[in-house]
Amino acid sequence: MGKVILVASGKGGTGKSTTAAALACALSELGRRVVCLDADVELRNLDLCLGLSDCAMMDYGDVLAGRCSLDDALTPSREFPSLFLLAAPVEPPEGGAETLIPSLTENFDYCLLDCPGGLNTASQWAPWADLALVVAATDPCSQRDAARAAQVLAEHGLEKARLLINRVSRRFLRSTEATLDDTIDSVGLQLIGYVPEDQSVAYALASGKPLLSLSRRGAAAAYRRIAKRLDGQSVPLRR
Ligand SMILES: Nc1ncnc2c1ncn2[C@@H]1O[C@H](COP(=O)(O)OP(=O)(O)OP(=O)(O)O)[C@@H](O)[C@H]1O
Ligand SMILES: [Mg+2]
After folding, report:
1. 66-77 burial, b for 16+ CB within 10 Å, e for fewer?
2. How many domains, in total, are found in the chain?
C-alpha cells in the first residue's frame, strides 16, 4: 500500500505546490511510483510546477463522475519516470477521497496531495493521509498559521506531521536575529528539512520545466535530501 502525504500550510503562498511537485519528482528519481494530486480546486497550479501546464485532458472530477477511468485521468510527467499528475476539477466535487485514495495507494508508492491555503480542504483530505508536511516560512504569520494547521489536521485524525521550512534566507535570519529553531519552536513540529530561498524556483516556473529537471543545487538539492528522508533513508539535517 502506498503512502499518502498531505502538503498543507494554513497561510497561502508558502510553497506547498512547489514542495509537492519537487518532492514528487525527487521520489520518482528514487525509483518510486508517484502521483501528485492537485487538491487546490479553485486556484490549481500544480501542473505548472510539474512542467505540465495545461497537459491534463481529464481530472479527478471526471473520474468521480464516471466520465473516464482513473488511468485516463493520469497525466504522465515528460521528464520523470513513473510520475503522474492527477489534475483538479474546475468545480469542487462532492466527496471523492473514499473512492480515489484506495485506487491511488494500490497503484502508487506515494500519493502527494497539494492542498490550497486555508484549512478546509486540508481537513477534508486529512483522514486519508498518513503524514502531513506543514510548509512554513520563517516569518511570524507563517509560523502561527502552520501551528494552527498542525492542530486542525490532528483534530481531523492526521496526527503525524512534520515541518518543512521554506524560503530560508540566511541574510534575513541574520538581520532579524532569528534562527530556524525559533520557527521549529513556534510551530511545535519535528523538522523534516528546510529549503533555501532560490531564484531557480521562479526560473523553472517561467521556463515551464520542473525545478528538479533544471537544478541540482539550492532548493532542488534540499528537496532531494527531504525526499530521501521521507523514503526512509538516513540523511542528516544541514543547518
Ligand atoms: N524556495 C523558494 N525560493 C524562492 N521562491 C519560492 C520558493 N518556494 C516557493 N517560491 C515562490 O513562492 C511563490 C508561491 O509558491 P507556491 O505556489 O508553491 O505556494 P503555495 O503555498 O502553493 O501557494 P497557494 O497557497 O496559493 O497554493 C511562487 O512564486 C514560487 O515560485
Ligand atoms: Mg499552491
Report:
1. eeeebeebbbeb
2. 1
Determine, yes or no, domain membership for 235.
no
| Residues β-bridged to residue 5 | 112, 131
Quote the ligand 2 centre to 165 CA distance (angstroms).
15
What CATH number does the domain containing 133 carry? Answer: 3.40.50.300
Write out pLDDT tens, residues 96-121.
Answer: 899 999 999 999 999 999 999 999 99
Q: Which residue among 201, 212, 225, 226 is best mutated to probe the pocket of ligand 1, counting the most ligand atoms within 8 A of its Cβ?
A: 201
Ligand 1 pocket list (CB less than 6 A): 9, 12-18, 40, 43, 116-117, 166-167, 195, 197-198, 201-202, 205, 219
197 lies in which domain range? 3-230
* CA–CA gap between residue 120 and residue 137 (Å, rounded): 21
pLDDT tens digit sequence for 191-221? 999 999 999 999 999 999 999 999 999 999 9
The answer to whether 69 and 59 are in contact (CB under 8 A) is no
The answer to whether the predicted template modeling score (pTM) of the entire model surpasses 0.85 is yes
List, for the chain, all residue ranges whose pLDDT scores fall below the cut of 70: 238-239
| 239 located within any domain | no
